[in-house]
């Protein structure tokens, strides 16, 4: 089980310079890839998107690529003279404001990455693509490790809540068996009070009351609910994206609980059903974070 939120980075010296990749993922109903990369690396946009899609199936992925130190041997490496003059003016103003006597040095300008640019795009080639792919695998490995760690924490919390729901369900099972008979007796007493000494065919009344009492029997709902609990645990332990399937299971669990709450005539069962519904709602909130 993986969380949809995570973070991973990777950095390496490639022929184009020092390349740094930053990957962030957030919750999203589907896969949404947002890519920011230097213009000179635009030829690699499609391969990069495919590498991400092969590793992430769901969530919003923000991928940022920076070239921290451009390799001048790659051709087209230039400096923007206007930007250098601009930053020189800015640094001089800062010096005057703070009263610094320190001399400006070339090293100060290396912090401003936009003074460097490439006139030509770096063309995609097999060697460079392989190097980029290897770097991406490192970044995605780091990303997925953080997602798996958070997913394990979410999984523990979810399974703990499932355990509490199962315990509550076990507590009401003996009462569930009593529910039809209690409803039968309650309705029979009600009819007698309404008749106020009148007569009625006992056999017919017993037959009609039995039918009515059967309608409040929640045994089948309890059996289905238990099977949903088992399926939740089985699905949560699978090594694959399970968020959508678990969300569907929780919808079915909520539906069964609604039916139990409507049909039961025992107040204690109703209270415990409300308690289980609260836990299922918390589970549904948690599952929104799962891939």
What features would you describe in this structure?
The structure is a single chain. The protein is an alpha+beta fold. 60% of the residues lie in helices and 15% in strands. Helix 1 links the parallel strand 3 and strand 4.
Number of strands: 6
The total of helices stands at 8
The proportion of strand residues reads: 5-15%
Distance between the termini: 7 Å
Structural class by SSE content: alpha+beta
Estimate the global geometry from the Cα principal axes.
elongated
Instruction: Determine Rg (CA atoms, Å).
Output: 33 Å
Uncertain ranges: none
The biggest beta sheet is recorded as: 4 strands, mixed
Encode the helix/strand succession as letters: EEEHEEHHEHHHHH
User: For the largest beta sheet, what order do the strands appear in spatially?
Assistant: 1-2-4-3
Calculate the mean pLDDT score and round it. Answer: 82
Work out the helicity level.
55-70%
Descriptive keywords:
291 residues, alpha+beta, four-stranded mixed β-sheet, two-stranded antiparallel ribbon, 6 strands, 15% strand, elongated
């Amino acid at each position: 089980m993986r969380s949809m939120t995570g973070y991973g980075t990777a950095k390496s010296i490639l022929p184009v310079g020092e390349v740094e990749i930053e990957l962030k993922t957030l919750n999203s109903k589907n896969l949404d890839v947002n890519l920011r990369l230097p213009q000179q690396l635009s030829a690699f946009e499609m391969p990069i998107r495919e590498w991400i899609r092969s590793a992430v199936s769901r969530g919003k992925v923000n991928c940022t690529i920076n070239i921290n130190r451009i390799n001048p041997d790659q051709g087209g490496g230039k400096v923007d003279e206007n930007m250098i003059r601009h930053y020189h003016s800015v640094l001089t103003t800062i010096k005057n404001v703070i009263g610094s006597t320190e001399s400006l040095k070339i090293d100060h300008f290396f912090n401003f990455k936009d003074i460097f640019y490439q006139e030509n795009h770096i063309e995609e080639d097999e060697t460079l693509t392989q190097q980029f792919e290897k770097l991406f695998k490192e970044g995605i490995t780091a990303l997925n490790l953080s997602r798996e760690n958070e997913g394990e924490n979410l999984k523990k919390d979810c399974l703990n809540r499932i355990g509490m729901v199962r315990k509550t369900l076990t507590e009401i099972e003996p009462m569930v068996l009593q529910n039809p008979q209690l409803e039968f007796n309650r309705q029979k007493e009600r009819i007698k009070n309404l008749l106020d000494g009148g007569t009625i065919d006992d056999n017919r009344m017993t037959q009609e009351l039995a039918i009515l009492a059967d309608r409040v029997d929640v045994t089948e709902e309890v059996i289905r609910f238990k099977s949903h609990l088992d399926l939740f645990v089985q699905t949560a332990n699978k090594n694959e994206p399970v968020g959508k399937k678990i969300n569907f299971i929780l919808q079915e669990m909520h539906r069964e609980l609604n039916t139990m709450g409507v049909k039961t005539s025992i107040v204690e069962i109703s209270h415990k059903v409300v308690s289980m519904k609260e836990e299922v709602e918390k589970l549904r909130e948690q599952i929104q974070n799962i891939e």
